[in-house]
Amino acid sequence: MEKSIYLDHAATTPLSEKAFEAMKPYFCEMFGNPNSQHVYGREGAKAVSESRAKIAAAIGAKPSEIYFTSCGTEADNWAVKGTAWQYGDKGKHIITSMIEHPAIYTTCKQLEKYGYEVTYLPVDGEGFVSPEELEKAIRPDTILVSIMFANNEIGTIEPIKRLCEIAHAHGVLFHTDAVQATGAIRYDVKDLGVDMLSMSAHKFYGPKGMGALYLRNGLKMEKFITGGEQERAHRGGTSNTPGIVGMATALEEAMSTLEQDAAYVASLRDRFVEKVLANIDDILFNGPKDMSKRLPNNANFSFRYIEGESILFSLDLAGISASSGSACSSASLDPSRTLLSIGVPVGTAHGSIRFTFGKHNTIEDVDYTVEQLVSTVKRLREMSPLYHKK
After folding, report:
1. Mean of the per-residue pLDDT values for the chain?
2. Topology of the domain covering 5-13+258-389
3. What is the pTM of this model?
């Protein structure tokens, strides 16, 4: 039987059957525009309202603080650009980190072209942002700090609550990209203290093309997408009722079994890491060594003397799907900005692979992947002139 093992859950997850079933009626039966004033519209509006309440409950927010978007990238763009446009008169300084997802990093680079100044905080060898470095970077004209909750490549879970406290002590707004964290670790936005938080449905077994932005009540925010009066006049565009229902159903399902799923996935990841480190030499295990400080599904390795793309192709032929890093930048030939930021040498960074496990993976998947990885690395190194020169 041909193998098919999916180990790229940080890129996307399969749609939950429960979410799929919940979505189906809103495609063909209850298809009305939720902003229309008739029975078809009221059915859609009710579904959107109930879904908003479910998502709010999952993260400790109020329904009025949840705004639906087309994806996590849109939510990130809205948080950063909306803040820049709303508070540009107060200041034009933004703080973020060197290891942010392209949705934040590239957005900040774009704002620099329009007169905004951005400080990109360094991280330590495990990818952590220093609270002390953040405090030193804040200026009188700083209007926003945006630090991701958990890194998509190396799994580092940042000290968001502490970072947020520092920003607020200086009167600065705080946003976190929680796309990888939501559905994987439990959190409460009120406890964290964040002003804005981004999430994406397809990272927790929900549909693609669906995201949300948490905006703390009382926070003024410039619109990102103008048009109609949807999303309480904050974001124009016809509501994606099936996507919204699917997102809410998937998140509710993920939260109901979060601890047991996280423990199971972490056990697979830990077995994998242990076996890889025991059977392959000349490698780096990137990210926190304390597994409690990284996402439960994440394992990122750099294999010296060989290219990551060659490893990926070989694994793919063996029926194993993994990734060379962020799915949003995997087409780039440049080495990972995240890996370079934690001190991985350029040549070694090119030989990096991210394995991210899911709740449907098995111990057999782990052992087969290790077996194939060991033979692949051995074969590629035998062909590598760099390996023979070491």
Report:
1. 95
2. Aspartate Aminotransferase, domain 1 (3.90.1150)
3. 0.95
